[in-house]
Amino acid sequence: MSDLQATEELNVKASQLDIIGDVHGCANTLQRLLQKLDYQKVAGVYRNPQRKVVFVGDIVDRGPRIREALAIVRDMVDAGEATMVLGNHELHALCYCLPNPNIPNHYLRPHTPRNTSIIQETLEQFANHSQDWQDHLRWLKQRPLYFQMPGVRVIHACWDQSVINRLAAVIPEARWSELADPASQLSRDVKRLTSGVELPLPEPHIMLSAEGYRRRSFRAGFWQSNPVNLGALAFQPDPLPDSVAALPVTDDIKAQLVVYDSSQPPLFVGHYWLNGSPKPITENIACLDYSAVKFGRLVAYRCDGRQTLHPNQYNWVYVDP
Prior knowledge:
The protein is 28% helix and 17% strand. With 321 residues, it is an alpha/beta fold. The chain has a domain at 14-183 and 265-318: Purple Acid Phosphatase, chain A, domain 2 (4-Layer Sandwich). The longest helix has 13 residues, at 66-78. The protein is globular, with a radius of gyration of 19 Å.
């Protein structure tokens, strides 16, 4: 993992950034959004003479045009017109496809039915383009886990400063093979940044997600300093069962939480499958994942340099079924 970057730079001010949410293979929708934001294709790359794009990750999986979406994003990044942080789906793709050097004929992430189902559309769409896929994997290994500059931060799921400080110290010596062990510190740290805060459901509760997965944990927000119950803490499309939502937030749970308070710079994330009319979560936190691949909206936030986020800075296009 020595080639995994912590962050990278764009030669603009924070007020010149457009942050785009989870694309998930919706290439046609991405092109319409870029055009709406006044990006034009010049020499095969979408460009705006005054602005740059930061993609929050999750370009791959699920959608109908994954190859095309990844090509658009990569061309922009390679031309210096954008940067992209790793999402949990890019991380999954890398771990699913990279050999485990410690176990012959195995991979960093086991090829279980569940793990295969997550990446199935990507593998199918690249089935006749295996060399391209291997080249994209090498490129994805170079992508950063987060982006920051004065006045703005971007990460796929959760900004945990203690994790970021720890990773900044270990990444130059880290190895991808460490991600094969879910219990390793590196694996837990990378999962925190790309998948967020996940809390176990109280025994014996199990949730059945809308996609049919049995879940023993739930995604929690990372901006509440004193949530009153688990229902207030949950931040995911599938609501907690009423009996679980009413349970109090114990001291043990509070010890696992991360709080991104209002004194910190504006933060942009994806990952959480929101719906409805886009708006900030707090005055300095915006989630830009509005379920595009589920015929929702592909959303961008047009930064203007203000430290308080405003609903009128959102731009989006609906995904055509």
